[in-house]
Amino acid sequence: MNQESFPANAAPLDTPPLETPEPLSADEFAELGAILAYLRARDERIPVWEFCEGFMVALICCRRQIAPEEYLPVLLVTPFANAVQQQHFMRLWSRRWQQVAQALDCKISALDDAQAYQPEVVDARAEQAALSGPEQAALAGQQAASFGQRWAQGFMAAVAAWPEEWAGPRNKEALKWRTAALEFVAALTADDNDAPTLSPFTDDHGPLTVSTQRMKAFGDALWAVYNMREMWCSLGPRIETVHKAAVPGRNDPCTCGSGKKYKKCCGV
């Protein structure tokens, strides 16, 4: 964790109290993207928003509540330009966090439910297909990310950053659920190499960029997220095992180093 990337005099990273959040507008998502693009110009390791959202969802589903001071340097490995930029990013981030958390806590029967979590993902292959001829030529040999791929990569990056928080529970049934759920998300980190059969955001006129198998896998991953959120909420934070120090026998040497027997020293 690159904690030194964020100076001690940086703006506070506190998450505001939970309340009914105002959904982020398209312009506000664009503002998040612009901040990330600015940071990425200084450090190419800075991810796009879709990756950040997947990372956020994993934090929301995590068994332990991880503070912004702990997770932000892992996600963004370079400091913000100034306190104003950081505060603006965190205000938008916190609103999106609260919206996602509330959606994942809703009881839904279908992913197209109005209250269901709707990931902020893009169809990168459709965007690439919409580029002009010269722009496409400049990207020759570079395949755009598959649908949902960067979101899943962000989720799994958070899992990898805190493996102890994602270790399997002792309950065998819960362990089986957790393992299956993570496998559904991890499957999305791979490329979609099946034949494209649909366009995820347009009915008739968009280019075919996503396979039927991919859309099913994406839906499976979203249900897996709901399952993980519910499971960790029910199990609660991990409880550390407390090991009681061994007590010496009455006639054993005292552990304080006095040279006396325990019964005539600290064991009195």
UniProtKB/TrEMBL annotation:
Region (Disordered): 1-22
Pfam families tied to this protein: SEC-C (PF02810), UPF0149 (PF03695)
Record SUPFAM superfamilies: Sec-C motif, YgfB-like
Positions in coiled-coil regions: none
Domain of life assignment: Bacteria
Protein name: Zinc chelation protein SecC
Species: Rhodoferax lithotrophicus
